[in-house]
């Protein structure tokens, strides 16, 4: 009587398998890396179970990954003595989506002509890479739990898999690949040996190939820095990062106080969140004396450092701590604080030592640092130092730090000024910039929509208030009197403007901050900025509410538009009124407040007609 169960793959897994099976991807050898990595994980999980004192089936059997190849039969078999899987675990892990990564990976693959499957491990679906080279995969597995029994899983990758109870299975997992004709090379020991050397020399579990021991186990992070070669570090990154490129930064350090820590951390060359992967998870594994306590440990670093990969080893961790409660312990919080502080210090040092590399890092990861400033009060100071912005004192495209900005500040300047615009050209021609240019005060040009929140949360830097330019309380040192309206004329023009524009403006005033622009709008609320208004307006449908506040209009009495407006306002009141409205709208455009410029097209056309008629 057959007890075989037939299961279907979940739709996304099947979709993934279709791509993997038909992939023309050339580096098919990565399947070996993925399966060995799973075998190693299983062995490390077993070590952990042993240290926590659980009853273990065949507890005397040591961790081992044994690989055998059979070139006559065209098969390769990878066996491990790890934790194995129960019936439930097999169903959950090999056929359903275990990770949110599956969808993101599918999306990325769909966008490519020749899909790069090598990132499969990054997306948490490495197991399925077996189907790049195998026409049939058989998994024999028995859990470490003495109460469980063995199971056999078989699949050809299409439709689903069969699951059958299996007797006399030793603890752990044995995966047999019946290779496709075009992948028969992987049934040769020498080929596999090369691959293992390339990808898996840091696997912390002994590996045997056809009966011969291959690697020596070495915890690279526990070795002394000057003994380790660059290639070894890079190989280790390939192993922990599932990434064949070189890391952007590497930090290897040890500390004795307040905690004993050895850490080896990497910044990947690419920000995976911008690659359509959605939110990534931290991939820093936590060890205690070289024993894996938790892979992808939660809470070890703040969320905004989730791009880090690597290893943290601390002797101060109790070995028998349960993985579930770990996240909450005060020890974890201490580790988090020390590690984060050290990493931010490292970034700061790096920005001095190798500004080019730092800038590359910054362009890739700035959003994470900004997220840190906005969400995490603890490291605000250190994060502030790491920010970089364009600035009026720098060439186009060059970035400056706040610290350097502060060093350049003239003595009479008390605040750090920022101007938020979509690009540099808009900043340089902004009416809000004029007073700064005249006073020779440097302004940081911010172009990322997140920057407004960053400025708001940063609040101060090195004791200096950080302010948006539109909120600056600054006057020109010298006002341009030439051709300017007399004070009296300017006052009466202001009054007339207020009468003419009526409800469309708050106050109309004479400005003391304009050089080249005829007018500027100012928010009557000291704490409100144009982009905050925009956002509030977008959030509420109430067009009379806070978002739709009446801005004050400040006019430049030295601007020709103002003197001519004053001259014609009585003789040609229609034209004057049209010009007044256009001046207001132009000021709104400059402030980024006019959502739909189409509304002023009629008026502009009228004005053009008048100009041409002259
Ligand atoms: P990931 O390793 O990122 O979780 P995989 O697709 O490689 O994704 O593996 C899916 C899951 O299947 C693993 O998380 C693990 O629970 C289980 N698994 C795979 N191989 C083994 C193995 N050799 N022993 C025990 N469990 C395994
Ligand atoms: Mg895996």
List the helices and strands and how they pair.
Elements: E1 5-8, H1 11-22, H2 30-51, E2 65-70, E3 75-80, H3 87-93, H4 101-110, E4 134-142, E5 150-155, E6 160-166, E7 172-179, H5 189-199, E8 207-209, E9 212-213, H6 230-241, E10 249-255, E11 261-267, E12 283-288, E13 291-294, E14 309-314, H7 323-326, H8 330-353, H9 355-375, H10 380-386, E15 388-391, E16 400-401, H11 402-408, E17 416-420, H12 424-428, H13 434-439, E18 444-446, H14 451-458, E19 460-461, E20 464-468, H15 487-501, E21 508-510, E22 519-522, H16 530-539, E23 552-555, H17 560-568, H18 573-590, H19 601-613
Parallel strand pairs: 2-8, 12-14, 17-18, 17-20, 21-23
Antiparallel strand pairs: 1-6, 2-3, 3-7, 4-5, 4-7, 5-6, 8-9, 10-11, 11-14, 12-13, 15-16, 15-18, 19-20, 22-23
Helix pairs in contact: 1-4, 8-9, 8-10, 9-10, 9-14
Bound molecules: adenosine-5'-diphosphate and magnesium ion.
